[in-house]
Amino acid sequence: MFDRKIRISILGNTGVGKTTLIDRMKGTDVRTIKSKKTYNINIEQKKIRLQSSDSYPWYHPEAYRKYQILAIDNPGEIKYRRQWREVLRTVNTDGMLFLLDPQQMLDNTRLAMEDAYNYFLDSLDLRPDKADEKAKTKKYIFHFVVNKCDTCLTSPCDPKNFHLTPETKDRAVEFLSHFATTIDIFKETFPRSKFGISYISALYSPYNEIDKLFEILKVYLYET
Ligand SMILES: Nc1nc2c(ncn2[C@@H]2O[C@H](COP(=O)(O)OP(=O)(O)OP(=O)(O)O)[C@@H](O)[C@H]2O)c(=O)[nH]1
Ligand SMILES: [Mg+2]
Prior knowledge:
- The longest helix is centred in the middle third of the chain and has 19 residues, at 106-124.
- This protein is α/β, with parallel strands linked by helices.
- It is built from 7 helices and 6 strands.
- It has a 6-stranded mixed beta sheet with strand order 2-3-1-4-5-6, with helices on both faces.
- The protein starts with a strand and ends with a helix.
- The chain binds guanosine-5'-triphosphate and magnesium ion.
- Magnesium ion is lined by residues 18-19, 38, 73.
């Protein structure tokens, strides 16, 4: 009875690690399986008790609360990307986790980001003026996730002990800086929405770092 829902679309270009992230959310050991390209929308669900529950006293409902995460895995390949629009129209999502891979070409990443922007707008209304108007009042979550931060390391990644060093982060931050203008367009169009950034490795980040992503969404949705 304490459950709350978090419904999030996972978007980004092909190969950025969307399916891998969702597998991590489900607790699968992704290092032993090779993830396959996604062709269809998959809605994955998991109930999780978020780390912050521990900080509440036992008599507080939050100490027992579970969050039902509905993570929508989308295909990133351009020819299947039209499905993003359909899912945004039919599933009442709270927003997106948009994944980026610092090893990919800037233009491909930018195009995927612009597609996400356009499909979010289209899903509000097909008439552009109406969509712009509705976007002004909409409260989505737009969280940008620089994935594969292990590939930014200068020395080989120690899989058992991955953590984001300042130099790793600098490279990831530099990569994201190329998309500042596009992110600003999101902010102007959706002024009431919440924006954030995370730096992870879906393959190597420890589970508490993966959970932290959902923790952030929870705060956006229920505590601000
Ligand atoms: N080095 C590294 N590789 C990763 C990471 N996350 C995912 N990968 C690898 O990147 C490849 C693509 O991952 P997927 O999860 O299939 O990517 P996707 O975004 O779902 O791709 P589509 O389904 O085609 O849209 C796989 O070989 C993963 O093992 C990461 O954090 N670091
Ligand atoms: Mg996939």
